[in-house]
Amino acid sequence: MIVNFSFFFLLLLLFISVFASSANAKATVSISPKALNRSGDTVVIQWSGVDSPSDLDWLGLYSPPESPSDHFIGYKFLNESSTWKSGFGSISLPLTNLRSNYTFRIFRWSESEIDMKHQDHDQNPLPGTKHLLAESEQLSFGSGGVGKPEQIHLSFTDKVNTMRVMFVAGDGEERFVRYGEEKDLLGNSAAARGMRYEREHMCDSPANSTIGWRDPGWIYDTVMKNLNNGVRYYYQVGSESKGWSEIRSFIARDAYSEETVAFMFGDMGCATPYTTFIRTQDESIATVKWILRDIEALGEKPALISHIGDISYARGYSWVWDEFFAQIEPIASKVPYHVCIGNHEYDFPTQPWKPDWAATTYGTDGGGECGVPYSLKFNMPGNSSEPTGMKAPPTRNLYYSYDMGSVHFLYISTETNFVKGGSQYEFIKRDLETVNRQKTPFVVVQGHRPMYTTSNEVRDTMIRQKMVEHLEPLFVDNNVTLALWGHVHRYERFCPISNNTCGKQWPGSPVHLVIGMAGQDWQPIWQPRPNHPDVPIFPQPEQSMYRTGEFGYTRLVANKEKLTVSFVGNHDGEVHDTVEMLASGEVISGSKESTKIPSLKTVSASATLIRKSESNTLWYVKGAGLMVAGVVLGFIIGFFTRGKKSSSGNRWIPVKNEET
Ligand SMILES: [Fe+2]
């Protein structure tokens, strides 16, 4: 009797599964066109014959095409198409060349199959892959799609009359750069060195997991030499047999110019046209757009870009690096793109330098990449490196410096040893002590985690103390003009400051700015609570001159007399804060706030909690209790924000939970 019951139960299951699949037996999905030329081109994905459409039906993107169903690179719900309820529709997607074909699959997913243990980075459930309805043909990137160079980006080298160019292609064959002052006469040529990294070089998951890992292709690196000062050069990369990139151009660095123009920010990330396993950064689109506007407005003047850590936010999902480099190519192929390392490029469980006081500071934020993509995809000046202590190649691009115009730029690593006695500390000391102030009266230091911030980041309290203890004396003694930091996703300007005390002149009291506002959106808010208008969550002490929740970037302009930094807001592309530092030492703090934008400073400054008489210990340490309360409150606000947004019709809404 038991046997019979089991038999009928199995028959019933078989009937249900046959019925379920036959109900959608006619479902089809097609693509147009079947080949794209280059990253950014759009494919239209059309489907039809989907019976009893559900708003959980979804479209998965797969590359390479043979990937298992749960190894999508991203997904979209079919209900994005206005006709989805009729069982057909279409979605257009601009795609990035991953040097491998794509396919697109449609799945049915039901409420009962939602698995809250199987979540993305924002705690949204990942879609179920049990019921495949249809799969498209393969989409390729045209003839030479694998071999065509993409992701072109420039950087300075240690020699003034050169420019490095890097790019990616799908095979390891010979490639070159050809360049010259005339667009139709690229008479100079240099061979590029190709290199790659492998899955076993990754230190942890998801970077070394089958879901996170994709073939990164070959990374090419070469240098254009003997460039004339301040001249526009045209160039293209590739080879005769595999094809050449489009012709790009840049203005060579001018060793005799006293002018400096730089666009500087941290924590930008990139946007993807699909939902994926981790949060991506839609605001980065506007940041790139406005910087491109500024570069074009410069005409024949050279400039540079500084992205000071938390670069792509790939965190082990390797195709996000491809998305990032495709997104920055319009700016990074025109001006040198300089970087320093952030926690999201590096931090991993066995990282070699993790002193006791940093046990909570350094975690797993690198997603197992342990600095490998960062070290190979960029090649900054200098030759700093640290072993990873694992199979992974050494971490590069940690600390270096160069001059441009009237400014000496120094980049440092807050993720590796920076304390007295270490090689980085010795480099910083020697570098700052040997700056030629006749040539470069201004010195700008950049690193990822801030020495000063009024935001949360409770877990970084100790690293701030150590930076004040070990690095600040070097900055003060050597008359650093400006210190720029990221990590906190806000713009904040401090007074000229030393030992947490406002000074009057930048020699002795560098101006500190936090500029991590280029794209990543997670950050607890500062505003006072409605029922406690006098008590903002993160109080703004007198040392903080201006802070805002707007996204954007900073623009640095200098000559021998004056260095000016402006904050440009992404919402309107206008300047909203400016500080000027004169060669004489004077600091002119001139906020140029837009009257259209309500300033948080106006609210918070009147509600400052920390009085000067209480300043025997660091104010940010005293604020820690309040900050913890703020984190909790921020989380609660995030939760309710999520609830509010969820009712607006979108299927899933991200919870702002990163790094909590
Ligand atoms: Fe960070």
From TrEMBL:
Q: Which SUPFAM superfamilies match?
A: Metallo-dependent phosphatases (SSF56300), Purple acid phosphatase, N-terminal domain (SSF49363)
Q: Domain (Purple acid phosphatase N-terminal): give its ranges.
A: 149-250
Q: Where in the cell is it found?
A: Secreted
Q: How does it assemble?
A: Homodimer.
Q: Which reaction does it catalyse?
A: a phosphate monoester + H2O = an alcohol + phosphate
Q: Where is the Purple acid phosphatase C-terminal domain?
A: 509-578
Asked if the record carries the keyword Iron, the reply is yes
> Which CDD domains does the record match to this protein?
MPP_PAPs (cd00839)
This protein's name: Purple acid phosphatase
> What's the short name of a Pfam family annotated to this entry?
Metallophos
- The positions making up the signal sequence are 1-20
The similarity annotation says: Belongs to the metallophosphoesterase superfamily. Purple acid phosphatase family.
What InterPro entries does UniProt report for this protein, alphabetically?
A: Calcineurin-like_PHP, Metallo-depent_PP-like, MPP_PAP, PAPs_C, PAPs_N, Purple_acid_Pase-like_N
